[in-house]
Every structure is written in C-alpha cells, then in structure tokens.
Amino acid sequence: MTAETGTSDPHTPPAHPVTGLDDVVHQRVRLGILTIAHEARRVEFGYLRTQLRLTAGNLSQHLGVLETAGLIEIEKGYAGKRGRTWITLTAAGRTALAEEIGRLKLLIARVETTDTREDR
Amino acid sequence: MTTDSVPAGGDPRRLLSDVRFLAHRVRLDQRLTWVALLVLAAVTLAGIPFDWLGMRVDCLPDGGCQFARRGMLYYWPPALPLAYAAIAVCYVRAARARGLGARVLPYAITGAATTVVFPAAWLAVALYLSEHPVPDHPLPYWGLVLDRLVMPWGMIGVALLVLAWLERNVALLLFTLAYLAMVLLVLPMNTGFGPFQWGLRAEMALPQLVSGALLLLGAIGFRLADRRHR
User: Fold this and answer.
1) What is the structure's pLDDT at B196?
2) B56 — contact with chain A (CB < 8 Å)?
3) The pTM of the whole model exceeds 0.90
4) Taking each helix axis from N to C terminus, what angle separates B33-54 and B152-166, rounded to the nearest 10 degrees?
5) Measured between beta carbons, which residues in chain A are less than 8 angstroms from residue B18?
C-alpha cells in the first residue's frame, strides 16, 4: 500500500513523507469517503453524495477505485421498496486512512520545520 | 469537496482540515442526545411512585424512623436496561434514516452493565448488616457520596459520561458534570430533604423530582440546539 519511510542505514536520511503517500487514498474525495465511512461505521451512498457534493456517477467511480483496492466493502439492499447501497470500511481501509493521516501530519510538521529554518 | 484529483503536492493542511470537518459532521448527524436524556428523565420520574409506594417506614416512639426502599430495588434493575435498549433502538433507527451507522452500542452496554451496581451494593450492605450491628454514627461524607454514586441516578451520570466521550460531545460532558455534581454533592438522594416536615416518602421523592427535572431540561435544551443546528 505505502512505501516504507524508515531505513536501515543510519547515514541515509529518512525518506520524505511524500514518497509514502498512497495515490488511491491521497485524493480529496476518496479521503473524504474513507473518513466518513470510518466515523459512521456504515454509510449510505446518498449521504456520501450529499456530504461530498458529487454526482452519482462520480461517486460510483471513486467507490469503484476504493473497492478494487480492498479498502471498502459495498453492500446493496432494500429499505422498503427503495434500493440502498451501504459502504463499510475494511480493516485495510482503516489502516490506509490512519497511515494517510499520519503522513499528512508528518508533511505538515516537515513543512513547518523547513519554514522555521528559512526564517532564520 | 470537489471531484478534482489532488496532486501529490496538494495542501496537506487543507486535506487534514477536510478530514476533521467531515468527521465532525458525521458525529453531529449521529447524535440524538435529547432522546437519551428524555428517556432517562422519564425513567427517573416514573421511578418516584415506585419508591414512594414500595418504601417501608417503621417509626419508633423516640421519634426516629427506619426505612427500607424496596420499591427502588424492584423498579430500577429492569427499568434501566429497558431504557438503554430503547435509547439504542432510537439511535440506530435515526442514524439509519440519515444514511449512517450508529455508535451508541458501547453506551447502551455500559448503561445496562451499571444497572447491576445498585442491587450488588444493596446486597453487599444487607450481607454486612446481617453479621454486624448497625453503626450508631452517621456515614462520613465520602461514604455518602459513594452511596449516591452507586444509586441509579449516579450510574445514569456515569453512563452519560461514556455517551459524551463516544459522541465527542463537549456540551453533553459539561451537562453531565453538572448533573453528577447535583446528584452526588448537592441533592441528598440517599437521605432526602424537604423544607417542612413532609414525611420521609416525600423527602425522598423531592431529590428524585429535581434530578428528573434536570434531565428533562437537558433533553429540551439539546432538542432545541439540535433543531437550530439542522
């Protein structure tokens, strides 16, 4: 999923956090889908479409990418006569989301450190 | 949020801020705090007649009275699990109607688990008193507070703390702390009070009435805040 940032050679500087970013997750909409699915435990297609302000087609595309990567599970069912699609985060999805957030925080910390050095 | 792909060099601060915003949004949409408070207020107020009618009072010629609150023992153990089950069902149904899963189950389980604390404490005291004489000196202050904590009204507060944590709900946390301060430190839930000589039953009912009213006011407040938010 993601590249390792650690290194066994103590003389080699650690890899920049940006090299560990996963293209599947490091995309604003897909990150949003993972975040909502994580918080909600289980989320309906319509809720995602409203919150992320997407068309049904666009959202389906992003869901397809995440499902292919094994980060979410899609379950279709009915509520009365209405068809409903529920999205659940997989264990891999939870890990990917946690790693992405960790790397984003690392990137911010790196940028802030660089800014401080340049200010001196 | 847009459908544009974010390049690798996208602003991480904005991405993180989006993540936090969405997580907060989902938590707000999952909340049904007022229902939890309303159900607990109803259970508290409904418990008053049980306590009143089930209380055995034996007054001695010297003016002192002994009492046993049997009604509480029969009412609360089944009432609280039923209340938490009702709250859990309401949360799940409301969240599902909004297109979300619910995060109330740990609260309902905690609440139902706290139900056993009161009968267990009652049993422990009864067993102790069967082998020891009744102490002739009053309980120390910490003993009174501990006694109030293990009573159903204290346990309701403990379970509400869990709900506040699950919902990351600061307003509920503050409300619960105020509620706990009332039922543990201010209201004599275990000794009763009244401005006039109302009789033991009425003196025991008054603190329950106040704590029920407090929960009811909380339910109304959270309901109004919820409506304004939506």
Assistant:
1) 53
2) no
3) no
4) 170
5) 28, 31-32, 35
